[in-house]
Amino acid sequence: MNALEFTILTGLSSFLAGFLGSLTGLGGGVVIVPLLTLVFGVDIRYAIGASLVSVIATSAGPAAAYVKEGYSNIRIGMFLEIATTVGALFGATVAAKLSTAVIAVIFGLVLIYSAYLSSKPHEEVNGDDTPDRLATLLRLDGSYPTPTGPQAYHAHAIPTGFSLMFAAGMLSGLLGIGSGAVKVLAMDQAMGLPFKVSTTTSNFMVGVTAAASAGVYLNRGYIDPGLAMPVMLGVLLGSMLGAQVLVRAETRLLRIVFSLVIVLLGIEMIYNGITGRF
What we know:
The chain is mainly alpha-helical. It has helices at 3-24, 29-39, 44-69, 74-94, 100-119, 133-137, 158-175, 180-190, 195-219, 225-246, 251-274, and strands at residues 142-144, 151-153.
């Protein structure tokens, strides 16, 4: 495979990863790392570096569209980014000292359990549920558009969500992903936000989290422009298409896609960790 073929194939693969990441709130990076490592034979450290750049693009692409449509909760995103950024810096710093194989297995188990939680029936909250005192104090409640008009919602369990966001940031630094799966589950299941609000706010957040980790990897020389550029462009275009599809998609369908994707990724992570490929 020559350089041109490699660039085209990685660009097309990244387009699909970006589309899926935008649609589910996962972030394209969670697909890019195993794809580059196993399919294209890229060194894991450089794959993580390119993944972090692509995650930033995934967030930047659809974020503006989601904010314009009124789905993303910017106040919640900015508040929770405090935890994810600190966690990302911590994870990227200790990544070289921990076994990536063990981390991959643990992360795979977390993904599978997350898929189980996501597949459970979960009633969408509405404006009639009891407001949370801390969420009200921080003005984290909001509304999002529906076919029948704006639907109000309240945020809950703020300390729990904040703690889970630190873990999400740490995983981002360790594995070079946006850790959108943990973010979506934290907001959807722990904080009681509507699923579309969770996925769109996750997309808004993953770029900031990845940027914190990318600085550490850039300093170590693990970001190759020749690899990062086609990956970034592919993910950016795919994420923009995903943003257009998301606003018209059914929540039940999104949950099914979300669960199936993270189950497959979880199994892949466990297998690669056990076999020593990570």
